[in-house]
Amino acid sequence: MKNQRTRKGLATIAVIAVSSLGLAACADDGDGGSNEVSGDAPGAGRAECAQLEQFGDLTGKEVSVYTSIIAPEDAVHKESYKVFEECTGATVAYEGSSEFEAQLVVRVQGGNAPDIAYIPQPGLLQTLVRDTDAVVAAPDPVSENVDEFFGEDWKAYGTVDDTFYAAPLGANVKSFVWYSPSMFEENGWEVPQTWDDMVALSDDMVDAGVDPWCAGIESGDATGWPTTDWLEDVVLRDAGPDVYDQWVNHEIPFNDPAIVESLDRVGDILKNDDYVNGGIGDVKSIATTAFQEGGLPILDGECGLHRQASFYAAQWPEGTDVSETGDVFAFYLPTTSDEFGTPVLGGGEFVAAFSDRPEVQAFQTYLSSDVWANEKAIATPGGWVSANTGLDIANLKSPIDKLSAEILQDPEAVFRFDGSDQMPGAVGAGSFWSEMTNWITGADTQTTLDNIEDSWPS
Amino acid sequence: MTTTTPPAPVAGVTAAPRKSASSAAREGLTGRWASAAAIVIAVLWTLPTFGLFISSFRPESEVKTNGWWNVFTDPQLTLDSYKQVINGADIDLATYLINSVVITIPSVLIPISLAVMAAYAFAWIPFRGRDTLFVAVFALQIVPIQVTMIPLLRLYVDPPFNLMPLSGNDAPGGGFYTVWLSHTIFALPLAIFLLHNFMREIPGELIESARVDGAGHVQIFSKIMLPLMTPAIAAFGIFQFLWVWNDLLVALVFAGGNPSVSPLTVRLAALAGQRGEDWHLLSAGAFVSLVVPLVVFLSLQRYFVRGLLAGSVKG
Amino acid sequence: MSSTDKLVQMVIAVVLFFAVMGVILILTTKLRSRTGEKVQAAAFIAPSLLLIAIGLLYPALRTIYQSFFGSAYEPLVGSEGGTFNGLDNYRQIFTNDDLLQVLQNTAVWVVLTPLLATGIGLVYAVLIDRSRFEKVAKALIFLPMAISLVGASIIWKFVYDYKGSDQSQLGVLNGLLKAAGFDTYRFLLTEPWNTLFLIVIIVWVQAGFAMTILSAAIKAIPDDIIEAARLDGVNGLKLFRYITVPSIRPSLIVVLTTISITTLKVFDIVRTATGGQFGTSVLAYEFYVQSFRSFNFGLGAALATLIFVLVTPIVVYNIRQMRRLEAR
User: B151 CB near a chain C CB, below 8 Å?
Assistant: First the structure.
């Protein structure tokens, strides 16, 4: 096998030649920050850097960040790192991907984890921690920040098996119903305060010749998720936060009678041919309508109500007035019972680290601070909030963001994280979505919940 | 007997209508019906793309509220979508285009060269276990890329292959080498299978007479086989080009998380919007990315309209 | 790294590659003996085999190994082991109704797609052969190949878009139905026909591949064969049936085989168009979901292994064809 050896030798030479060339070519376009005075942090002495002095000089260091946040929303994220970069001298290499969830697992398992990832599901965090050992526990300053600014509930979502890993980042409020204030005014309708009011309002709309509800749950391989939010919101209101927690953690079966009752309540709206699907079609059309388009008929007056999270604000076409007196706005999903009031259902991202290098920990700490939250709020034109209580609501620009932040920061409010995001992937990103889609297209409530229960991994 | 075949001019444009099997068949199917059928297929195949094309010039609000055919009664056209696609990112589109080119060219040339050689050996050099090996290679086409992602990434990252950092400017080939290597691996089984098939079509006498004249395998390969295989290589080349050009997954996994080496497809995927489909942007993006493959196809077409042997055997 | 640097890197890599291959070839020319022939064969084949073994064979074997384990991604033997659960994953596939439907759909895909794509590609190649517009006509059918599968699926999603009969339509098909006075139709939702509508997408893409390869094969048919047949009075459909098709038989088999294998692997279409809902999922997609969304690597690997198994008949058929050719 003389030849093969020759070939191998040559191949090695080839690799070395190419690489040394790469090194030479890139040596001269190094970091712009490197000509700063070493020793002190580059930003030392500047007013906005006062709170970041603890991190010291990180000049020439790089932190890689991997997220599911892609253009155009990534721009404001990068903008919000500027203070950190200028004050410490470190650079943040940002990468957003629409294939984030699957790719993150591949990279971690492949030994090529990013320094930091923004994980939108506590369930995924658990999988990563338990299956890979790659996630690094959060350093103390992060933990202290979270204690100070977020509180116990949020800290618990970033904790796996009693170790705290991931601080919360952004958040959203799911318990919203979008409507058109101008349409309400014209017809003399009022924002409902109870579930019964809302049903009565729906009937009024039917009488006025408007289809009250519109919805869309198609979302590519995540089709069905908006219905899971519906169900979770109603379970929170019907059965209360404690039952909700038991249900999410599978301490009661998925098809518990309480859940059956709640899903039937959702069905009274979503599967009611008199109520849906304004401007689009009948009940089944919900399943094939992109969730992004589900609420748009409100603009044409063909539909009155659309239950969707705060981030739906981004879906209204440019030029739409999203405010309390404008074309569209959202009201808080009313309660079904006096007993449990109106708990908040929400979601958000968590910052997990796969490295404990000082610059990575510094960046983690920065992201969990009130400094970052306000920087981000100032950089964002609208469509972002955080549960960080250090966030000054005045820094938020859009009315819906302000409303969301008020709800998230309200110390009285009971908050619960999106249940499907906490369940094991096989349910939360699998059977829960698909069975709820089947439910929309005709499956009955009991069968649907039974099937999901059967799919829960043992 | 000549062994090299200059690519023939596109038949029908210049050549007098020599009767071929299919043109005769076409006549038999009565010219008019045949043309009608061809036109129907062509229209069916073009219509969806045509709708996309129209949509890319319509304003967002129109795209989202009514069908593209309404453009004929209510023509509202704009270049806004193209402007957003071209200017909408902090890394400009030209960088992505260059990345795509830098990824694609070696990922086409390297596997094809390796595959032509392997195909030649499988077809014309007898050795023990040849057929079994060939079947194994052919069968491995079935392995989906997703299956290979984690193991292959580990090989790149873990010793002994992690001689260099996986990503970043100081990696060999500027961080592109893992992408080139991966594309090469995924292309090989199909390339060997297809090219082997074409090589078997070449008459054995041609090889044998060259052997009798004292030519070795290397001479036969480079002097006889390569020229004869030009159309087949061009045909496979165009497909490999397309697969690499349109690939998102390999780039995502093996570019090692470095946006500065990402191809155009990564940018296009981002255009799909944060939470789903910004249809108007996608349509414009699709056309931006379509231009290069189409130009390549049209310019390579003359190499593979002419068959393998038509000229060579008869001289 | 600037764009120029990247291009320079690329050129160097390509030049180095060809230089290395060239040197190997030149070195092997010197060898003329019987063993020399073997070394030559090795020089031609070894680089490809090495890459395939590392990049495809090893992951495939690993996947088969994983398919006997639980959900966690299994480190190789030697590290701490996971839960070995034997044939449980396979048992699950063959007892779960949803997964059985997935198998059934996959069968429909793998039978219909190659036949339709190859059939249409062949007929079209014959029809436009040596016509005045051949170049343009080919480019039109080829165009879908130049769009990624995801792009193609999105295009078709809009072709199939459904709105109630009294609404303004976005999808061209329902637009036509409505204009003709019919009710609009749920193309992607109505079982079992939705699977066929998804197959249309892949046929739309693959027909260009079939057409290109088959067109080249048709042009390679020696003219004297045709002349002889015509002198015997064979014409039209008969010529197509008895001369054209048999002459390009090897190419037909290659195209059918390639498209079958591609079809078994395709998951983007199902993923983009329906997300596997409404009873449209196929093996490749289900494998993707189990491995990378449910993080159930064991079941995912079992599904992938099943894809490997399904290709066996295709492989066997090809071996038979090869034998027949050798015997000739």
Answer: yes
